[in-house]
Amino acid sequence: MNPEPMRRAIALSETARGTTSPNPPVGAVILDARGEFAGEGVTQPPGGPHAEVMALRQAGEKALGGTAYVTLEPCVHHGRTPPCAQALLDAGVSAVYYAVPDPNPVAAGGAKTLEAAGVETHEGLLREDVERGPLRAWLHYARTGRPHVTWKYASTLDGRVAAADGTSRWISSPESRAEVHGIRATLDAIVVGRGTVLADDPALTARAADGSLLPRQPLRVVVGTGEIPAGARVLDGSAETVHVRSHDPGEVLALLTGRGAVDVLLEGGPRLAGAFAAAKRIDRILAYLAPALLGSGPVALGDAGVATITGMHRWAVEGVTMSGSDVRVSATPVH
């Protein structure tokens, strides 16, 4: 078993993030019968071909007797595009490796279809890499019916997100800020509270190091019942902005689900983050901890509905790495 083609498929899958919702950002690689590279592809925007079809088009006749490596089980249903399992059969591949079974009951079953036709199938190659990587958000969306929410924040070591006078630029390192702009470009939406708009006037755009806008921008979502000031940067036309006149996380996510959003970044502030935490609607925490102390000023999380220590929200740390001078922590809820 050679994991390298699947690693390439995962890397391809990452390049499609943010462009395929509500479909999954799948990557595929085809090797010919001799085990040589023949083709690769990623899922195109909704209505376009899936990753397997793109890879097969590049491979052409070289796919005959070859092997396909796909990050998600090939689909078996006919939606806006024909089923990928049938495309692989028509191309004459002899084996298919896929990382993750499709949790969508409408699309699942491709592996059985392939096996029934005599194609050797293998499930689970680099599964954890895919589940924690490019398909994390989509798998959550497929299993729960709601967008995956990552709460991102930057704070000092004592948990402050701003000084006592409200200033907050900048707590995190230049490397962390650049990384977050890259993450924004792969998302469907960024959510902030109206208080953050009033306090910080953020643009909530994805920008390059020179300050120019990246080609793809997420939907900007402002939560709160009051008006957004006419001159606020979230209304500058750089990206679409939606104002949700509610403080209910359920209503916010229902609106985003209706718009086909799969991967959502919650950026602030403490009150809104607390509401999402209390509602158990945070699916991942991405924290950037700066080696600094403030001693006073607002903290990262507001009231999260915890009255006693036994009600504490428990999280499992899945990664601790450096981002410039900051410590980057990724965590998921303990169920």
UniProtKB/TrEMBL annotation:
Entry keyword Oxidoreductase: yes
CDD domains, alphabetized: Riboflavin_deaminase-reductase
Leader peptide range in chain numbering: none
Active-site residue list: 52 (proton donor)
One GO molecular-function entry: diaminohydroxyphosphoribosylaminopyrimidine deaminase activity
Known EC number: 3.5.4.26, 1.1.1.193
Binding site for NADP(+): 154, 170, 196, 200, 225, 269-275
Residues binding substrate: 168, 184, 204, 207, 267
Cofactor note: Binds 1 zinc ion.
UniProt binding sites for Zn(2+): 50, 75, 84
Domain of life of the native organism: Bacteria
Reactions it catalyzes: 2,5-diamino-6-hydroxy-4-(5-phosphoribosylamino)-pyrimidine + H2O + H(+) = 5-amino-6-(5-phospho-D-ribosylamino)uracil + NH4(+); 5-amino-6-(5-phospho-D-ribitylamino)uracil + NADP(+) = 5-amino-6-(5-phospho-D-ribosylamino)uracil + NADPH + H(+)
InterPro entries in the cross-refs: APOBEC/CMP_deaminase_Zn-bd, CMP_dCMP_dom, Cytidine_deaminase-like, DHFR-like_dom_sf, Eubact_RibD, RibDG_C, Riboflavin_Biosynth_HTPR
Keyword list, A-Z: Hydrolase, Metal-binding, Multifunctional enzyme, NADP, Oxidoreductase, Riboflavin biosynthesis, Zinc
Function: Converts 2,5-diamino-6-(ribosylamino)-4(3h)-pyrimidinone 5'-phosphate into 5-amino-6-(ribosylamino)-2,4(1h,3h)-pyrimidinedione 5'-phosphate.
Name the UniProt record assigns to this protein: Riboflavin biosynthesis protein RibD
